[in-house]
Amino acid sequence: MILKNKTIGVAVTGSFCTLSRLYPVLESLIQKEALVHTICSHSVQTIDCRFGNHNDVLSKLKAITGNDPILTISEAESIGPKKWLDALLIFPCTGNTIAKLAAGITDSPVLMAAKAHLRNERPLIISISTNDALSMNLKNIGILMNTKHIYFVPFGQDDPSTKTRSMIAHSNLIIPTIKAALDGIQYQPILISPIKQ
Length: 197
Fold this sequence. Notes:
Elements: E1 7-12, H1 19-31, E2 35-40, H2 42-46, H3 54-65, H4 73-77, H5 79-82, E3 87-93, H6 95-103, H7 109-118, E4 124-130, H8 138-145, E5 150-152, E6 155-157, E7 167-169, H9 174-182
Parallel strand pairs: 1-2, 1-3, 3-4, 4-5
Antiparallel strand pairs: 4-7, 6-7
Helix pairs in contact: 1-3, 6-8
């Protein structure tokens, strides 16, 4: 699948240690001439931490994509009736987001974007980053893997010796996963472990 002129949404949640991997993905999508729009969770919009200042994150998203990030639930809801995304990527996708998505909860711009997008039966791609993937969230990952139009970026354990339940997606496989999802195919293999840090 060619990404040129495809409208790709990238929904960003609060796995702040993963944000440094986000910017090269956005740049790669732009280089492939995709039209990119970002959607930010409340955490990304408000929290400052050792991985960055929230204003810097929002400014960088706009600078790379050329578009203002979507910051409200009402803005994200319009994704459904306007049918303007060809694919939606959640990257990074936290355990909190995974759990709420599996339960049908829409209390953030990212979750509303996912719900609105899925009503159009178009691909939702999940790039997980969660410390509880192999514990409390394992059942939720299973639910989403068995849900039509949801695809996963291949993932694996990022630190099996000290964080035995933590898993993170291979960000270098995001573009191939999006391309496959646009053709209705889950990129394989899904599990690739461990991930080199």
